[in-house]
Specification:
This protein is of the alpha/beta class. It has helices at residues 14-17, 80-97, 132-136, 138-149, 209-213, 233-240, 253-265, 277-286, 308-324, 343-356; strands at residues 5-7, 22-24, 43-47, 53-59, 65-71, 102-107, 116-121, 124-129, 153-158, 171-177, 182-187, 190-195, 223-227, 245-250, 271-274, 291-296, 326-336, 360-367, 386-393. Helix 9 packs across helix 10.
């Protein structure tokens, strides 16, 4: 059975033919196909001005991104079998890359399933939907995950604010099976417990897997500060790689308690300090504290384009505070998960921060997200994570 068409204006198909998956509301020929004729999540065939097939997907007339392509094969519309094929394709990549089943299994557009992410914690899956179209496919998504992976439990973490842009409710709920309160994550031979329902995002930040592995060459014998530490992943990995001491700073009591638990789980000991990151850095500076390595892994400061100027300044101030705590010839690891902030602008903020405190910097490494978060070449937004490893020397002002 054919799906209702969503017809584009003349010449608005070029970006889609180049590989993009999004249709914007101003690209639709609403004189021929009014968007008001659709309900959020309706399945559609996206066609060019002349009626040529571009793809099948789903629509949301209330969103600026009013449609997303799932399939480009006219004979294979998005159904349960389609989801199983997409899932098997994603699994094949992760199985090659990771010896143990701890990774982001599905990464939205990059895995051909816009609006859906799934993280794997061994036999437990945590899934998150951010679009009305995927919300309509919930039952098929769960069935496909069970068919391919046979998990013991699946949790919906549909409690992120971006869902409100699609008119969707916020909730966390069991989708399948039985779920423990906590699960174990294995990374670089270390084990971490994370809370499923109460943790940040989907519980763990798999995207920093490779960057935490890069610590090994920099931290032996060093004193490390982990800011925005969450459950202590950076600090504990640093200690496991040979750091002599590590301090975690976070605003969450629960996260810091879990960080201490994870440290004990790995046979190391961390210090913890509950504080807002900016206030905590200022207090450490006032106390005359010095560190050899400072890790800054904040949440996104630039969630919308209009926040860019304020966010750019926040990154500059954060890095400046971090540099003030670095001993002579120290290492700053500065990250940003704001896809609206270009990598060069983060680097410029680091350089500006250095000049504010009379320090010199050298860029040693630049990195991004781990390979379980592949980048779609036609969709720059999928390449969101930036990580700079920067040598900082000279006496701070």
């Amino acid at each position: 059975m054919s799906l209702p068409p969503l017809i584009l204006k003349r010449n608005e198909d070029r970006r889609l033919r180049a590989g993009h998956l999004w249709v914007f509301s101003n690209e639709v020929d609403t004189a021929r196909v009014p968007l008001t004729a659709f309900a959020p999540g309706d399945a559609v065939e996206i066609r060019d001005h002349g009626g040529g097939f571009l793809g099948s997907g789903y629509v949301n007339p209330n969103s600026l991104i009013c449609a997303r392509i799932l399939s480009r094969d006219e004979h294979y519309p998005p159904d349960r079998a389609f989801l199983v094929r997409r899932l098997n394709n994603a699994l094949a990549l992760r199985a090659r890359l990771y010896p143990r089943p701890f990774y982001r299994l599905l990464f939205g557009e990059s895995d051909g399933l816009p609006g859906l992410v799934v993280d794997r914690y061994g036999e437990v899956l945590v899934a998150q939907i951010t679009t009305a179209g995927m919300e309509r496919m919930q039952d098929d998504i769960v069935a496909a995950l069970v068919t391919v992976l046979k998990p013991t439990g699946i949790l919906w973490r549909n409690d992120v604010s971006i869902r409100e842009l699609e008119g969707l409710p916020l909730y966390a709920d069991t989708a399948y099976g039985v779920l423990p309160e906590r699960v174990i994550v294995e990374e670089h031979g270390r084990k971490f417990e994370v809370a499923l329902a109460g943790g940040q995002k989907t519980g763990w930040f798999f995207d920093q897997h490779d960057n935490r592995g890069r610590l090994a060459r920099y931290v032996p014998g060093r004193r490390v500060l982990d800011v925005f530490s969450y459950v202590g992943a950076w600090a504990i990995q640093a200690l496991a790689w040979g750091a002599r001491e590590a301090l975690c700073v976070d605003s969450s009591v629960a996260a810091l308690a879990l960080a201490e638990h994870n440290a004990a789980l790995n046979g190391v000991r961390i210090g913890v300090r509950k504080a807002d990151a900016f206030d905590g850095l200022r207090a450490l500076h006032a106390d005359g504290e010095k560190f050899d390595v400072v890790i800054l892994d904040p949440p996104a400061f630039v969630k919308r384009k209009k926040d860019l100027a304020a966010g750019r300044d926040a990154y500059r101030r954060l890095n400046q505070l971090g540099m003030q705590l670095l001993a002579h010839d120290g290492l700053l690891i500065s990250c940003s998960c704001s896809h609206h902030l270009p990598a060069e602008e983060l680097l410029a903020a680091i350089q500006s921060a250095a000049r504010h405190v009379n320090r010199e910097v050298q860029l040693l490494e630049r990195s991004g997200q781990a390979a379980d978060h592949p980048v779609h070449p036609a969709i720059p937004e999928t390449g969101y994570l930036k990580a700079f490893f920067v040598r900082v020397f000279g006496e701070p002002r």
